[in-house]
Specification:
α1 packs across α4 and α5 packs parallel to α7. The chain is mainly α and about 200 residues long. The protein is built from eight helices and four strands; from the N terminus they run ααββααβαβααα. Helices cover about 45% and strands about 10% of the residues.
Length: about 200
């Protein structure tokens, strides 16, 4: 029952969000083009509900010669690839805004496990054990507000499983509110090191 309500809410809120934020989309797009050569958007294969692959959109924050299928935290020197505006976009999570389109089309939800890269077999396997691969990935989720990049993969998957078990309107509202506070504080964002996904 809630999943149907959730989909309607995702559709309406993402559509409204794209309309309201269109001036910001335009401003960020211009800034990205001026910051470095290359496209405005970055497209990447991610794992969706039922482990079905889909193409996720982000604002491009790295140079075009950066490895495209490697999680940022696994790069030896991620800062060597991040563009001038890219650091700001990643710190504020504004690079995630184009995923409103993924939510609008039904590949993602506003709240859910963050979508794994198509080749992140370790994360997908962990989520399978916790039953977290069965629902749509989200723009934000329980793992994001409880540590994000600072969490090891096993712990992320455990939080994703916890969300699946207790998914509901109250939990989604709580996660959204905590996401806003976390983004404003710039908490738990890490571009390197042994953790993250």
């Amino acid at each position: 029952m809630y999943s149907s309500f959730k989909r309607v809410g995702d559709f309406l809120l993402s559509g409204l969000g794209m309309i309201v934020l269109s001036p910001i989309f335009l401003l960020l797009g211009i800034s990205i083009k001026l910051s470095s050569p290359g496209p405005v958007f970055f497209l990447q294969k991610r794992v969706g509900a039922g482990k079905k692959l889909f193409t996720m959109l982000k604002f491009r924050t790295m140079r075009t010669d950066a490895p495209s299928e490697v999680p940022t935290h696994l790069l030896e020197d991620p800062f060597a690839y991040i563009t001038g505006i890219g650091k700001f976009l990643r710190k504020t999570s504004l690079d995630e805004l184009p995923q409103l389109w993924n939510i609008f089309t039904g590949d993602m939800s506003i709240v859910g496990p963050r979508p794994a890269l198509w080749n992140q077999d370790d994360l997908v396997a962990c989520r399978e054990r916790y039953g977290a691969n069965r629902i749509k990935p989200g723009l934000t989720g329980l793992a994001q507000v409880r540590g994000r990049d600072e969490l090891p993969i096993e712990q992320k998957a455990a939080y994703d499983g916890e969300y699946c078990q207790h998914m509901g309107f109250a939990m989604d509202c709580r996660i959204l509110w905590q996401t806003v506070l976390s983004v404003l504080a710039g908490k738990n964002v890490s571009e390197g090191g042994p953790r993250g996904s």
